[in-house]
UniProtKB/TrEMBL annotation:
Domain called Cytochrome c: residue spans: 92-185
Official protein name in the record: Cytochrome c domain-containing protein
Bias kind Low complexity: ranges: 238-257
The UniProt record lists the keyword Transcription regulation: no
Segments for region (Disordered): 232-257
InterPro entries tied to this protein: Cyt_c-like_dom (IPR009056), Cyt_c-like_dom_sf (IPR036909), Cyt_C_IC (IPR008168), Cytochrome_c-type_DH (IPR051459)
Record GO terms (molecular function): electron transfer activity; heme binding; iron ion binding
Transmembrane as UniProt keyword: yes
TM ranges: 41-60
Domain of life of the source: Bacteria
Record's keyword terms, sorted: Electron transport, Heme, Iron, Membrane, Metal-binding, Transmembrane, Transmembrane helix, Transport
Length: 257
């Protein structure tokens, strides 16, 4: 009787041995996965320094945690806005006019009122400000609507344009600056000589009146238009064309022959 010997069958894929394949996989790095990892030492040092700096900063600038400690007048909320003070007396008008003139007019007419030769006419001892052709009515119209074209001032022609200030300045501001220029740079003495007894101050209500009378005007004034306006003082009273001319005395009676 013959003996049967079990001979192992060769692996059909012997060239791709399982052990060898698993060995290749084990040599690869492990796949990343979620989980707890130790914090790097350098990061702990950084966080520690930040916490230390923050504590020192808060200790030095905590302000005792008072909400008003670092408040300034610019950051405090005012209960009510301060109302603009409107000048009413001659002195108050003149003082306010000086500030308005410096901020708005001095760049052209200069701080001394002499203007710029050939460009901007002088206001000092000008016949339009305090001379024989001056009147509050004409001055108010110039500031409200501007002036265009040639203008004869003290024998010299100025052919520049003055902008209108009616939209930028309020009535009391225009009144103030006119009151100021009528009393500066020798204009007060000139006004007394040409229009004796006339008030130097121009009140805001007068500017309001002129603004209303010229509300429909959009063009700047010209010299010819201004001269066609009758001369009136700040109270609306007519001014003699000669300025200081007094009423003529009646002729003396002739002696009887």
């Amino acid at each position: 009787m013959s003996t049967v010997v079990n001979t192992p069958m060769p692996d059909a894929n012997e060239a791709n041995d399982v052990v060898k394949l698993h060995g290749c996989i084990q040599r690869e790095l492990a796949e990343p996965h979620d989980g707890f990892e130790p914090v790097p030492f350098w990061m702990m040092i950084t966080f520690g320094l930040l916490l230390f700096w923050g504590g020192m900063y808060m200790s030095a600038f905590d302000g005792e945690y008072r909400q008003d400690l670092y408040d300034t007048p610019h950051t405090q909320i005012a209960s009510k806005p301060k109302l603009e003070e409107i000048p009413t007396t001659p002195d108050a008008l003149k003082n306010a006019g000086a500030r308005i003139y410096t901020n708005n007019c001095a760049s052209c007419h200069q701080a001394n009122g002499l203007g710029q030769p050939g460009q901007y006419p002088p206001l000092a001892e000008s016949e339009w400000v305090a001379g024989v052709t001056s009147s509050p009515d004409r001055l108010a119209r110039i500031l409200l609507h501007g002036l265009n074209g040639p203008l004869n001032v003290n024998g010299k022609i100025y052919n520049n344009q003055m902008p209108a200030w009616g939209a930028q300045l309020k009535d009391h501001q225009i009144a103030a600056v006119l009151t100021f220029i009528r009393q500066e740079w020798g204009n007060k003495a000139l006004l007394e000589a040409t229009h004796k007894g006339q008030d130097f101050a121009i009140l805001p209500k007068f500017i309001t009146q002129i603004r209303g009378e010229t509300a429909g005007r959009s063009l700047s004034w010209t010299e010819a238009e201004l001269k066609a306006i009758p001369l009136k003082d700040a109270n609306g009273n007519p001014i003699p064309a000669s300025g200081s001319a007094a009423p003529a005395a009646p002729p003396a009676a002739m002696n009887k022959q």
